[in-house]
Amino acid sequence: MIDQRLQMLRMVAHHGTVTAAAEALRYTPSAVSQQLKQLSRELGVVLLEPEGRQVRLTSAARSLLRHADTLFAEWERARAELARHVDEPSGALTMCGFSTAAAALLPPAVAGLRDRFPRVRVETIEAEPSECYELVFAGRADLAVVLLTPTTPSLSDPRFDQRRLFDEPLDLLVHPEHRLAEHATVSLAETAEEAWIVARPGTTYHQLTMASCASAGFTPNVAHYANEWETGTALVAHGFGVALVSRLARWSGQHSVVRIPLRGDPIPARRILAVTRAGAGTSPTLDHALGMIGATAEELIGAMADQRG
Q1: What would the 3-class secondary structure string for 80-128 be?
Q2: C-alpha–C-alpha distance, residues 301 and 174, integer Å
Q3: Contact status, residue 8 vs residue 56, Cβ threshold 8 Å
Q4: CA 89/CA 245 separation, integer angstroms
Q5: How many CA atoms lie within 13 A of 142 on its CB side?
Q6: Residue 183: how many CB atoms within 10 A of its CB?
Q7: What whole-number distance in Å separates Cα of residue 282 and Cα of residue 85?
Q8: Which distant-in-sequence residues (6+ apart) come within 8 Å of 206 by Cβ?
Q9: Do 154 and 286 belong together in one domain?
Q10: CATH (domain of 281)
């Protein structure tokens, strides 16, 4: 087994403070601090130095972390390989995803796992992409379906295996009597003078809307903030503005709105990724879950393209 003090050090490096690392690992800060001090003494090098309210990793700590990432990835690969020697996998598997994924992509995967591996207990967690990475890294989730954003870990991050599932197109949501409602497609630039309904600052969808509009050459005139699809569509249905909506997004049919595909080069879209801990994705259960999620995503995108056609 790998010395768990290495995971403590990895978590401190990730979070920036001993307190945050301890919370993620469900330890007390004093326990983490004591364990890392002991590791430092055993190795004969200083690993952490105070820097204001945070701590700074020394060069020795960063060297150790590079080796630790390799060790943990190899350990995950070994566990995945050994799992293939088990006739009937059991235990627990946790998947997490942002709201659309949690509604559209994860339930079919859970059903497929239940049928294929009846002795595996499957749990799902709905969470923002940043939290999904935290859950996977801390070992509290095994697989995450996330959006690629400017704040998510880079695709080369050695702690994770990240695979592209698909690029999900974005649509424009307008009132049925809006000037663009009869258009088959619309460019985002055509909405530069519109009032906009966006998610609150700090959320993934706010980042996506602002970045998409910036790419189209304007900053949206924000009239209202709404994090939930249901709230946003209600505001659009009452003529208070326009909004971006993902192709997979669903809401109740009580709001009268028109959904228009966006055009452009490239077409505004959000990239959906599947994330596991480095080395873990080849286990039978995760491999099956990844296959189910990918197949479901392709079916949904194809069905919606046919509906628009």
Answers
A1: HHHHCCCCCCCEEEEEEECHHHHHHCHHHHHHHHHHHCCCEEEEEEECC
A2: 21
A3: no
A4: 39
A5: 25
A6: 16
A7: 13
A8: 198, 199, 200
A9: yes
A10: 3.40.190.10
Closest CA to 141 of 161, 129, 123: 123
Shared-domain flag, residues 171 and 159: no
Q: What tokens does 126 get?
A: 């709905």
Name the one residue in this structure whose structure tokens are 């969470």: 127
- For β-strands 269-277 and 143-147, DSSP reports them as antiparallel
Chunk the chain into consecutive blocks of 10 residues (it has 309) and report each block's average pLDDT, rounded to whole numbers: 92 92 92 96 95 89 96 95 91 92 88 94 93 93 92 93 89 95 94 96 90 93 92 94 87 84 86 94 93 85 62
Position 32, amino acid: V
Q: Please, what is the Cα angle at 92 between 91 and 94, to 5 degrees?
A: 160
The structural domain count of the chain equals 3
As given in the structure block, the two tokens for residue 158 are: 């050695």
Between CA 96 and CA 104, with CA 99 as vertex, the angle to 5 degrees is 85
This model's pTM is above 0.70: yes
Residue 55: strand, helix, or coil: strand
Pick the last residue of a domain from 41, 59, 80.
Answer: 80
| Contacting residues for 73 by C-beta, under 8 A, at least 6 apart | 158, 159, 277, 278, 279
